[in-house]
Amino acid sequence: SQHADIVDESLSLLKKNDAAAIIRLDTMLPTLRDRSLHWLINGYHAINKPDIVRQVSTLTFTSFNLSFESLTSREALQALHDVEKND
C-alpha cells in the first residue's frame, strides 16, 4: 500500500515532467496522515485472516493454542521475550 502510493506518485511526477532529474515526493504531514490511514486499513485486511493466524501459531508456538488463557500465560510471555532475543 505504501509502496503503491510511492510508485503512483513517482510515475505521475515523471509524466508531468519528462526530463525530471530529481523526483520530490510529497512528505507533508496532511498527505502522510491521509495515506497512513489507508496503509493501516490495508495492513489490517492483510493480516486479519484466522487461518493464517492459526497456521503461524502452530508453527511458532506448538505448546500454545489461541485461547485467552494460553496466549496470556506466563509461558507465552516468556516465549515472546525469547523471540525478541533471537530476532
Detailed description of the structure:
The protein has 87 residues and is mostly helical. It is 71% helix and 0% strand. It has five helices and no strands.
Entry keywords:
elongated; 87 residues; 0% strand; mainly alpha
Spell the H/E element sequence.
HHHHH
Mean of residue pLDDT? 79
Distance between the termini: 25 Å
Oligomer: single chain
Number of strands: 0
Largest sheet: none
The Rg value, from CA coordinates, equals: 21 Å
Low-confidence stretches: none
Shape: elongated
Secondary structural class: mainly alpha
Percent helix, as a range, is: over 70%
Summarize the structure.
The chain is mainly alpha-helical. Helices cover 71% and strands 0% of the residues. The chain has helices spanning 2-16, 29-47, 50-60, 68-71, 74-86.
Give a topology summary.
Elements: H1 2-16, H2 29-47, H3 50-60, H4 68-71, H5 74-86
